[in-house]
Amino acid sequence: MPKTLMCPKELLAIDLSGRTYIVTGGNSGVGLVTVGQLAKQGAHVVLACRRPQEGEKVKSQIISVGIRGSIEVLDLDLASLASVRS
Ligand SMILES: NC(=O)c1ccc[n+]([C@@H]2O[C@H](COP(=O)([O-])OP(=O)(O)OC[C@H]3O[C@@H](n4cnc5c(N)ncnc54)[C@H](OP(=O)(O)O)[C@@H]3O)[C@@H](O)[C@H]2O)c1
């Protein structure tokens, strides 16, 4: 059976205040969990996704659970170079 690799617990307790992260595909799956964890640790997180309305919904859900940082939703379609540039 392969060994499951986990993030060391101490990394999940680091204060990320003053840092900004951009998470693509932040509205679901791995991206959503990443946005929540970074914001919980005090970071400012740019939740970049191609369905901003869904992003705003997810942002409200994460905030309702309680975070120390902040979340900003940005429209980003990675299949469009124009969207990536803007
Ligand atoms: N190596 C590993 O062990 C492992 C484990 C888990 C996941 N992964 C990989 O990690 C990635 C995420 O997995 P997941 O389970 O979190 O998948 P997911 O829940 O399907 O999330 C994918 C995200 O990417 C977004 N997305 C897709 N096309 C996009 C585009 N053109 N522009 C902007 N955003 C786009 C989706 O947005 P919409 O909601 O708008 O569709 C969604 O937010 C996948 O590539 C998966 O293969 C790898």
Can you describe what's shown?
The protein is α/β, with parallel strands linked by helices and 86 residues long. It has a single domain (19-85), classed as Rossmann fold (3-Layer(aba) Sandwich). It is built from three helices and three strands. It has helices at residues 29-40, 52-65, 81-85, and strands at residues 20-24, 44-49, 70-75. The chain has a three-stranded parallel β-sheet with strand order 1-2-3, with helices on one face. β2, α2 (52-65) and β3 form a beta-alpha-beta unit. Residues 24-25, 27-31, 49-51, 76-79 line the site of NADP nicotinamide-adenine-dinucleotide phosphate (NAP).
Helices and strands, with pairings:
Layout: E1 20-24, H1 29-40, E2 44-49, H2 52-65, E3 70-75, H3 81-85
Parallel strand pairs: 1-2, 2-3
The chain binds NADP nicotinamide-adenine-dinucleotide phosphate.
Residues 24-25, 27-31, 49-51, 76-79 line the site of NADP nicotinamide-adenine-dinucleotide phosphate.
